[in-house]
Amino acid sequence: MSREKAIVLGVDLGTSRFKAAIFDRHGAQRGLGRRDLAPDRGDGQRCELPVDRFWRTLSEAIKEAMTCAGANAGDLAAVAYASQANSFLLLDETYRPLTSILLWPDRRVPKPPPAMRALWARPDFLKVTGLGAEAGTEFAAAKILWFQDRHPRLWRQARYVMTLSDYLVHSLSARRVGDAGTASLLGMLDARNLAWWPTALELLHLDAERLSQPLRPGSVAGAITAEGAARVGLAEGALLAVGNLDHYLAALGAGLDRLAPLSESTGTVTAVVRSCTEICPATGVCFGPAFEPGRYDQLLYSENSAAVLAWYRERFAPELTFEELLEMAGRIETAEAPVALPNADRYPDREGFQGRREDMGHGHYVRAILNSTAASLAELVERASAVAFPRSVLATGGGARSDLWLQTYADHLGCDVLRATTEEPACRGAAMLAARATGWFDNLSQAADAWCRAGRRFSPARAK
Predict the structure, then answer these.
(1) N or C: which end of the chain has fewer CB within 10 A?
(2) Both 183 and 48 in a single domain?
(3) CB atoms within 10 A of CB 464
(4) How many domains are there within the chain?
(5) Which domain holds residue 265?
(6) Of 204, 224, 245, which residue is a domain's last?
(7) Which stretches of the chain drop beneath a pLDDT of 70?
(8) pTM (2 decimals)?
(9) What pLDDT, in 10s, does the model give residues 231-269?
């Protein structure tokens, strides 16, 4: 008699760290593994992850999670992932990588190429793609055109272009498929039809045969092959479900729509996610296919984020931990702090802080950063709340670990802020996809009812 497969694995392919978490049928997290990424930065503009380092980092995170859970590879029923977007690599006709993985923060291209600007400027671009972000060099399209122009011989060798998550899926399952969620952020996808947009491909000098087939997020890609299992220390035969953008999976894992209509994430960017039934094209708003037909994920984001706090610490207080800085900020009243302009890290020295005085210490400036990110979040929530301002918002991301930050958010928003009950909601969201794929639940609503509970509630201390 075969042993019951009693666990699922959720993997979060984040920008700064890979995480892997094991969950049982009841939604209890049994094991967690984390590994920081160490990309090669070259001249400071590049940001590449060698392929062997990708596999080593991922397999170490998975091994740590499995060891922590006291589980064997044969116990695993299914796997799914949450992923960053616009990170990619080139492969030849035998699927041999020709490049490292170019991570989305790579800025080797000084400005968007003309073909990319022409695509983004089309009057039907927003309507078809749902991508309301400005053309920027963080997009894969900019670097694909750069390869065509600067390295034509390498480009001719390249048979396939795979995003980070496409490459993971193909390597584990031998199927050239990916998820339409992260694909929707490439600027090449017809988001309503889950198909590559011919007009975009023509402008970018691509053909669909170079790209992986986009599937609805949560779809089963197939079973993990023997070769795929060997790459990451898993067992052959476990199911692999395609995932979605990390922000969307974090919202799912935190209990979006079950516990609150909006989810926020404070990390590399400050982001707001909600679920909706139609694409309403708008600048600054991104839409992607959701887990169920007829539904879409909506994403709004600001670069005024936890990255500003990381900059402040690195620039002015490297001897202090984030926890120590936040403790200092907790002793400062809002009125005593200077005003941090959005993206204060882009100004020389402390010139992004208005009303600064010589007697101000780290606590004053960190309090100002918290207030500034809270103001940016309030603007995002206002834009996302088409009908009525929400009574509660779910909090995920690194900022959710700080009581002070969440209380600051509640005060600025004038509504309750609910902390997710797991530190890694994107892993739990991915694991929920895996649990549905293996038949533990008929749908994700059942999974959310069984696995998602409200964490600590932060209520506004004063009226908005």
Answers:
(1) N
(2) yes
(3) 11
(4) 2
(5) 256-419
(6) 245
(7) 1-3, 387, 462-464
(8) 0.94
(9) 999 999 999 999 999 999 999 999 999 999 999 999 889
Q: Is residue 110 part of a domain?
A: yes
User: Do 137 and 79 reside in the same domain of the chain?
Assistant: yes
